[in-house]
Amino acid sequence: MKRVLPLFFLFVFVSVLLLPVGASAKEECLAGGCKAAYLCDQYSGDVAYERNAEARLPIASMCKIMTLLLCFEAEESGAFSFEDKICVSERASSMGGSQVFLEAGGEYAAGDLIKSICIASANDSCVAMAEKIAGSEELFVKKMNERARELGMENTVFSNCTGLPKEGQYSCAKDVAKMLCRLLCHEKYYDYSRIWLDEMEHTGGRKTEMANTNKLIRNYSGCDAGKTGYTSEAGFCLAASAKRGNMRIVSVVIGAGDSKTRFRGVSEMFDYAFANYESRCVVDGKVCDDLIVCVTGGKKKEVAVRPERPIYLFCKKGSEENVTVDAEVYDLKAPVDGGDVAGTLTVYRNGVEAESVALLANDSVARANYFDSLRDIADNWCIV
User: Does the annotation count 77 as an active-site position?
Assistant: First the structure.
């Protein structure tokens, strides 16, 4: 049985009017010198700034964002572990462009190969991982395009897993932001993306030095993720993310004239977002005291619930947001494990659904036994 309950008690946390700020920088041209630009909140995808966001353009090594996403998703599904040794093919070792000079026939830990993609944009490691996951780069590219469609990337076609120039390959700033937002959901990714300097070890003691191609990792406060790209066709590109407090921002530029321009463009959009927007908590992760779920056939008749995670709304500073929260809860049947889904919490902003999160049983409830049933009968026995 489902019950829908409006949670008016949460409203007081979110309907506020903050002090106004100066003139909006959105009226100005952010990321000047770039063909396309896009700025959004990572959690909600809400847009703070965009220019030529859906223009189909080559994106060079930013294609590797999808390669990395499939790597992390495959690892989480159990297809391999980061410690697994991967034998590098002749084809993978022969890739040009950015590389870490893998040895054909050499064996490398999957985690080290993925790390080299994150730090050094290694084309040879990309192909090695593609062959591990799908059997060949061609089959892996099919997976890339399938995943792009699942993510709603309507202006993207991949032709290889590296971003090296190839006919028919393109994307757009909006789509690049979508796949980076999804990659950022994998906590293990940050173990690699935050590294500034490292090295790849080969057999015989040979080492390849690696330096992060995303200079904002070192130069911009809060920036801890991203992927650069460059070819003569694509120009200088960058997709990066920065987090301050509860707000994580994703910024993308395509087609800058030089490397300094791409880093300056992304930094400008970061500055604009942190100066003009906030991420306000409207649902915390605590137990909902006003919500109780009924349990049948259990040692307890009801159980409290909690949101699966907090919900934050990406709002412009100085704006007044009309926020309401509704809960849909289900009657459960014992046994119940703590963490079982018991309903849904939905947040509405100005009458439009903004986000929803699962409600979880806060405690476990064991199935009632014979003696529990006798006790219930006795407790409810009425003597006339």
Answer: no
